[in-house]
Write a structure and sequence with these properties.
The chain has helices at about 20-35, 65-75, 115-120, 150-155, 155-165, 165-170; strands spanning about 45-55, 60, 80-90, 95-110, 140-145. It has about 170 residues and is an alpha+beta fold.
């Protein structure tokens, strides 16, 4: 028996400005609970995930415009930063919850203004925590990752399988 997957946008208002670990896990919980409460989710394991870039002890979020995207990249230039993903699974039936946080460290190259401008012009930064996508052209900004690359991309698969090993058994 195979496992079916469907991506559903939760459309919840995300928290921001607090302790990054608490905020990221709570955002994942809000997303998972919002989707789990829908009638079409009955009998399903619902996965909520929230990923953000943490620099200097605070989550920097997704840039809202090109100027903020430039600012994010300038701050990240030559700096190691942490990527945290909160993952919350809500089980079928009684709504049992399993949760955890995945961490990875991203090592950024020194970025000159020309590279920043070329990357901004791609538009790939839109909707991306920290203003970059390591799985795309943003890989040119990164010299390495310590930890799970899937976490940096946005779904910590290792943590997911740790929380729900039955997903692998039924795939």
């Amino acid at each position: 028996m195979g496992v079916g997957f469907e991506v559903v946008v939760s459309e919840v208002d995300e928290l921001n400005g607090g302790d990054p670990e608490v905020e990221i896990l709570q955002n994942a919980r809000l997303k998972a609970r919002a989707v789990a409460s829908r009638p079409q989710s009955e009998g399903a394991i619902v996965i909520g995930c929230d990923t953000d870039v943490v620099l200097g002890g605070r989550a920097i979020g997704k840039p809202v415009d090109t100027e903020q995207a430039r600012g994010h990249l300038r701050c990240l230039s030559g700096v190691d930063h942490e990527v945290l993903s909160g993952l919350v699974l809500v089980g079928p039936g009684d709504g049992e919850e399993r949760s955890g946080i995945a961490r990875s460290v991203v090592h950024f190259r020194e970025l000159d203004e020309e590279l920043i401008e070329r990357y901004i012009a791609t538009g790939e930064w839109r909707g991306r925590a920290g203003g970059y996508a390591v799985q795309g052209l943003g890989s040119a900004l990164v010299s390495g990752v310590t930890g799970e690359i899937a976490n940096v991309i946005g779904l910590p698969v290792g943590l997911l399988l740790e929380l729900a090993p039955e997903l692998l058994a039924t795939a």
